[in-house]
Design goal:
It is a single chain. The chain is mainly α. The chain has a domain of about 100 residues. The chain is built from five helices and three strands; from the N terminus they run H-E-E-H-H-E-H-H. It has a three-stranded antiparallel beta sheet. The longest helix has 24 residues. The model has no long low-confidence stretch (mean pLDDT about 85).
Amino acid sequence: MLSALILDQITKWIVIENLVVGESWPATGFFRFTHAWNTGTAFSFFQGQGDILTWVSLGAVGILTLIYRSIQDPPWVLRIAFGLQFGGAVGNIIDRVRLGHVTDFFDVGSWPIFNIADSSIVIGISLMIFYFWFLDGSGKTEEDSSNSTAEPSQPSSVDSTPDLTD
């Protein structure tokens, strides 16, 4: 969590200090750094809803905390997934409270401009989906767990010993 949060805040600080809002570096190209203000959610959805989104984000962090704490000895994939989501959410909450908007700067083709926090949240959610879709919680794949749940071979009830009494 801390790594995602620190990287997010440092990169936003660099953009704020070096680019005027609306300025891009390089000026043209498929991938640019463009200083943008976002009052919506990740990838610029729900523009102008900053106050509501701050409370929704705080609620989401609270719910994530409860879910994470309910998992006994979470595997490394879930620790990373939750950490990325926490770090991203807190990074954007800090911006909303401090600046009244979120600073975005990754400008890739026609995709909406985004930041490290947005990426962290999306990667964290993707890891969580991967974990719950493909792993059963013990680190086994579905194939491994289906093999381990097969009924064990039972001895035959037919007596195969020859009858020697004749």
